[in-house]
Design brief:
It is a single chain. The strands form six sheets. The protein has a four-stranded antiparallel β-sheet with strand order 5-6-9-8, with no helix packed on it. Strand 8 and strand 9 form a beta hairpin. The chain is built from no helices and 15 strands. It is an all-beta fold.
Amino acid sequence: GVTSDPSVFATLVVTTAPSSNGTGTVAVALQCAAVAEGQAVAQRGAFLQYIETPSITQAAVQGDACAPYLGCRLVVTIRSPPATVADVTHLGIALSGVPFLATAATSRAQILSLSDASLTLLILIPPPTAPGNITIRIAPLVALPGFTTAQFAVSTRLEIVGTTPVVRKLYPSSAFATGGETVEVHVAGFPPISNSSDINLTLGGITLTPSL
């Protein structure tokens, strides 16, 4: 479409950018029938820059897998991150799909590497309370001029599989035969426990009275 602004003697020409085979800058040229043949309109900053849509090239769990009541660490690599992202505070990360512990329902992240070509994030996934699929959506908080943040958003999925609670650590791992030592049992995969009477603890087949 074409409109004219008589106050500044300017003409607005609206069109749709054609597809491109890659990124880069292309010049914009105009010619009007009212202008002498062969005389093009002078270009004053009339260049269109093609950018690549961000995409996730890798998403992998680092260390132990995510499971109910067990958080995990997810490393995500994004190709062609938007230029508006300079640090992790410029990103919005949203999790959906399964419920999380109310006391730790917010994900945290840090940037491991950042360049014009790629962005690698370490995302700390909070403990979910049920198996299922977590959708992780990553988007800039500010978009480039003429775009929306949704156009730069990328998503990946993480499967949460049910697992049996495990003893992660026993400290100390030895005791005198006479007994009496205080032993710490570090357990992962249990739902929140506030009352020691909810725990059935045995050591060598002997039932013990635990404390929290």
